[in-house]
Amino acid sequence: MWRGEPTEDDLIITRILTLEGLEDSVNRGPGCDSLGRYIYIHGTNHLAELGRPASHGCVRLSSEDIAELFERVKEGDAVVIVEGEPGAAA
């Protein structure tokens, strides 16, 4: 159990959502499968690194944001991950 002590480890905290890719040869199938590569959406203990690439493929959120997302999605819901700020025009 993590109690806020400093650590270099990139911890998975609060909640975790596993991702199963839907696009063959992009995020589904041998060598690229999101589920098989352990690509998740999860809370992190490294809040200063949010918004920058810092993991091995996971989407990391603050504890508050992952808890909110966890309450909003159900197993089997489609999740689309896009670049940019929330609510910003494309």
Topology:
Blueprint: E1 13-18, E2 40-43, E3 59-61, H1 63-72
Parallel strand pairs: 2-3
Antiparallel strand pairs: 1-2
Verbal overview:
The structure is a single chain. This protein has one helix spanning 63-72; strands at residues 13-18, 40-43, 59-61. It has a domain at 13-72. The chain has 90 residues and is α+β, with helices and mostly antiparallel strands. It has a three-stranded mixed β-sheet, with helices on one face. The protein is globular and about 40 Å long. The model has no long low-confidence stretch (mean pLDDT 87).
The rounded Rg comes to 14 Å
Structural class: alpha+beta
Q: What would you call the shape?
A: globular
Please tell me the overall pLDDT.
87
Proportion of beta-strand residues:
5-15%
Low-confidence stretches: none
Distance linking N and C termini: 40 Å
Percentage of residues in helical conformation: 10-25%
**SSE pattern:** EEEH
